Amino acid sequence: xxxxDGEDAQIVDSVAAFFARNGxxxxxxxxxxxxxxxxxETWRAAAEQGWIGILAPETAGGLDxxxxxxxxxxQTAARSVPFEPFSAAIVAAxxxxxxxxxxxxxxxxxxxxxxxxxxxxxxLDWDGTxxxxxxxQTADVASADWFVVSCNGTETGLFLVSxxxxxxxxxxxxxxxxxxxxxxxxDGAEGTALGSGSDAEREAADAxxxxxxxxxxxxxxxxxxxxxxxxxxxRARSQFGRPIxxxxxxxxxxxxxxxxxxxxxxxxxEAVRAFGTDRQAFAADATxxxxxxAAQLACDEAIQMHGAIGFTDELEIGFFLKRxxxxxxxADERDPATISRVI
Length: 343
Hints:
The protein is of the alpha+beta class. The chain has a domain at 200-339: Up-down Bundle (Butyryl-CoA Dehydrogenase, subunit A, domain 3), CATH 1.20.140. The chain has eleven helices and eleven strands. The protein has helices spanning 6-21, 24-34, 40-48, 67-77, 86-98, 103-111, 197-236, 248-274, 280-305, 317-328, 336-339; strands at residues 116-120, 124-126, 130-134, 138-139, 146-152, 156-162, 168-174, 180-190, 192-196, 238-239, 242-243. The strands form three sheets. Strands 2, 3, 4, 7 and 8 form a five-stranded antiparallel sheet that branches. A four-stranded mixed sheet has the order 1-5-6-9, covered by helices on one side. The protein has a two-stranded antiparallel ribbon with strand order 10-11. Strand 5 and strand 6 form a beta hairpin. Mean pLDDT is 89; it is low at 333-343.
């Protein structure tokens, strides 16, 4: 993990310690078994740490830290495979802080009292007062209190819509990691216009890039933890009187994983550096694709190298693959023409 200065090291250490205190993967297992889509106590505690507002402007109550800090945060958090929509919430909070969002709502979001998530408005229409139509498949739709919608309809812009609207219907399905995915249908739901024109378009584009970067950081982080646990297992598990990690075939496979993950991590932080330039969308798509591919290899091999026990729910290694499957669901948003230039 590229730690560049003392502040970065503090982020990594504090996030790791936070999840260790709050139960780590055991917490995720418990919530999944209970069928819970939220953990309000943990969410509010994370908000108190400043996570939700890490990229929001200081004038709006956020920390206004660099994108690199948010990427480090999500890369570290992913090692405990939380299914809560931290990446999307961070992006939504930044968006709300940079536009004319109602202060009371922004305060609730930054304090963890409410969850705001960005929503792709493809297929939705805003007539100046009300929102209609059905959204694309979206992660964590059952967790949101507010949606920050970007759409091109009768009017183009950003709109804030409450999930308590009687004219909103959510069709959500549980994912393997404990989260949800589904669509949102609006039938004339009232909302608040937050911005329109080129400024709103630019903010929406930046939000899409940031979400891609933070999800890539998650993929890299969870894969690194799965790989680290696999290496420990290879050192501890013996067969024919020798640690299986001494078998050359497994060493070659482990070396391949290491190279792929190191490459994905390096590309991630190059893409982070590109944010704010005319290369940002291309860089984010490239790192998202590379991160998913490397993480898929790492998680698949982790299951295989653990042998028969790797397929059981009792072993935590399976949680990494399940979380990756949920992250991969957003891969359909990638532009194949863009990705093909770097793969």
